[in-house]
Amino acid sequence: MKKTIFAFSLIFAVFLHAAPQKVERYLLVAGANNGGSDRVKLRYAESDANSFASVMSQMGGVDKSNVLRVFDPNAKAMQNGFAELGKRLQGKEVGVRREVIVYYSGHADEKGLRLGGDVYSWAEFRKNVNDINADVKVAILDACGSGAITRTKGGVSRPAFLQDASSEMKGYAFLTSSNENEASQESDRIKGSFFTHSLVGGLRGAADMTGNGKVTLSEAYQYAFDETLRNTQNTSAGSQHPNRDMNLAGTGDIVMTDLRETSAILTLDSNLEGRLFIRDEQGNLFAELNKIRGRQIELGMPIGKYSIQMEVPSKIWMAKEVQISEGKKNVLSMKDMQSIEREKAVARGNADSSGMTGLDSARAKPFKVNFNAYAYNKEPANELQLGVFFAGAHRALYGTQVSIIGNTAMDDMAGTQASGLMNIATKNFYGAQLTSVFNYADSISGLQASATLNIAKNFNGVQAGITNLTGTGRGVQAGIININADTLDGLQGAVINIASKVSIGQGGVINVANDAGSVQGGVVNIAGDAGLVQGGVMNIAGKVEKLQGGVLNIGGHVGRQIGVINISAESDHTPIGLLNIVGNGIFDGTFYLDETGRTGLALHMGTPYLYTVLDCALSPTDKWPQSSGLGLGTRFGMRGNHFSLDYSYINVNNENPLRKKHNQLQKIRLGAAYELLTGLALSSGLTFNALSRYNGEDFYLEPRGGYHWHWTFGDHKVRLWPGLYAGFTVGKF
Length: 733
Hints:
Layout: H1 2-18, E1 22-32, H2 45-59, E2 67-71, H3 75-88, E3 96-108, E4 112-115, E5 118-121, H4 122-130, E6 136-142, H5 148-151, E7 170-176, E8 186-187, E9 192-193, H6 194-206, E10 214-216, H7 217-232, E11 243-249, E12 255-258, E13 264-268, E14 274-279, E15 285-291, E16 297-300, E17 304-312, E18 315-324, E19 328-332, E20 338-340, H8 357-364, E21 368-377, E22 381-393, E23 397-403, E24 406-409, E25 413-419, E26 422-435, E27 439-444, E28 447-450, E29 454-459, E30 462-473, E31 476-488, E32 491-502, E33 505-515, E34 519-529, E35 533-535, E36 538-571, E37 579-582, E38 586-594, E39 599-606, E40 611-618, E41 626-636, E42 642-653, E43 662-677, E44 680-692, E45 709-713, E46 716-732
Parallel strand pairs: 1-2, 1-3, 3-6, 6-7, 13-19, 21-22, 22-23, 22-24, 23-25, 24-26, 25-26, 26-27, 26-28, 27-29, 28-30, 29-30, 30-31, 31-32, 32-33, 33-34, 34-35, 34-36, 35-36, 36-37
Antiparallel strand pairs: 3-4, 4-5, 7-11, 8-9, 10-12, 13-16, 14-15, 14-17, 17-18, 18-20, 38-39, 38-46, 39-40, 40-41, 41-42, 42-43, 43-44, 44-46, 45-46
Helix pairs in contact: 2-6, 6-7
């Protein structure tokens, strides 16, 4: 018995120990731009403090009521801040673990914090932190010489790391932006200090090296150390090395921020690689980080619009407008980026430097004609190259190449290439390429014209030919087939157009684009994002912002569809057409018995505002008469219980319809549905029926009991009667 009691006691104790504690976090932030009359006034200390407070409130589990702010304080005001924090921590609730974070941004020296004309000593600051009645205390100091606080306790400057400490740890940690002999720096470029800018970016998710959606104290510090050192290596004040002193007991680690605390997240896809700069709508640098291919990064961000630039050694990529929305993960991948040209810098006085200096040197030379079976230049030249078989330029050429077989320009060229077979330009080409077979340009600003094929990795001008291929372009493609692998700012016009992204529009017989920009117009249009309008015989798009119009329209998310057949996963406005299938609309069928004794099925497709009716009915005892028809209707009451009003035009056949023996039934139906279960409702209503004969045939349909009346005008006779129907409705309504 004693063993049993002991076992239960042991299990209960383990359970209590393992049960998660409630955690309360408190934050004291101080920003001091004014460090005294003998010091330059800072610009961003207060904004840094607000930035840190924001990320901890949004993602760090600090309730806004537990945030204390002290701006431009003197020593007394700083002391009062600690005193107010102490009052809020009086009386500890059982089972609650309290954590306190103290953040300071401003001036400091080897003596302590410089608050206006006062000095708040390191010893006093450290004593106030140590006296805080909390389980865990973290102090973060972004100030010159802040590393002196670690020296007072014998801390040694070592590579930045913190051993893991458990969620039940106790103790303190001091993080500083520099060691005792260094200046902590701020920058107008980032509108803040290098250390806080890096630390906040890491806390928002950039420092999450494990990918578990949490940023620990050690991860945040290591990230801030690396980024601060990277950004200050080449500054006039010299490198800045963040430091630390810690005394934490336990196993595990302190979680500083958790992405689950925010519902607005930017996910940087694993296929991105480079140095990323994220700017807000006002152009302020929000965050910057190194992104490694293969690693996905999630950043918690305030909602709004951002521009994101990614730099690699050879290219710059840009996503100009990234919308961060509440309640969703906003994913950025390479398909959202477009390449932009680096601004060319010309070195003064160096004829061999990059940019246009080579062409300037070629332009300055006297003009000559180089006529040979094999025309070639090894120095910058201003000439007309007439090669019977081949004309080539190894260095910059200002002039024209003409040959029967081939032209090559290995360096920058301004002029014209004309060949019966091949034109190749491997660097910047300014001018035109003309051939009946093949054109290639690594970068062209002029015109390519070919009867068979044009290829340009980057072009700004016009391509005209039977086939056009380009990587990135800004001009116009015109030919039988146009293919653009990256971004086209201008217009494609041809029998077939294929593009990754077109900023303005596509026009041709067949248009295919991942992003069609504003307008896509042709016989067949296919696009991932068709922009504003997509118009043609057949339109297929993942997204159309305003209008999709054609005979057949198929879309993911569309504004409005107008056509014969409209199909969409989600539509902002009611589609207009004969057959409408909408994912966020209605799709149901009513099985009914009417006053003629026949059973029928009416399918409803579209939206409650306007839906299509497909109606068919037959006699349960005889093959004839049969009827089928099409109509339109609307509903009152959007979902569940509702009233409906629709009109249908129906053919009534008394035998094989190919023999044209049928009547025309026009039916107006006023009905109601009462929802029994989700997707199931009882339905009934009134109808008004007008049946007309065809080619002198008899009337094939009448209500049970024979009640009806006839209306004759000229040679036409119409049978009229009111009716009833009842049944049940199944589906999405």
